[in-house]
Amino acid sequence: EVQLVESGGTSVQAGGSLRLSCTASGVNFDEVEMAWYRQAPGNECELVSSIDNDGNTYYTDSVKGRFTISQDNAKNTVYLQMNSLKPEDTAVYYCASYLPLRLPVDGLGTCGGLPGGYWGQGTQVTVSS
Questions:
Q1: Whose C-alpha in 76, 77, 109, 112 is 20 to 30 A from the C-alpha of 3?
Q2: What pLDDT band is residue 53 in, cutting at 50, 70 and 90?
């Protein structure tokens, strides 16, 4: 059974930092890609960052240089370190797991309900100006 649980979301001031965690049960990091998505009110789901089974990483342009994705195999946990936060980073952040080459990247609609992978429940990040 696969279960993903996010934690670490809270309210912070612009320019601040936050680290999100995703603990994955029943997932073999050697066989999947792990990803962070986010969805703000009125917007569609957006892929923020991912890390594959070889350690290759991806970042959407708006977070490059500010966010860092990492994983700890011993703890079966994926992290998203967020620095220099901006009000436009405000969203619900979701952890997801997909088989290699199956990670959805465009036209996502609503986070959490996309087929073919596993999703956490989401954690709220609010950045105040």
A1: 109
A2: confident
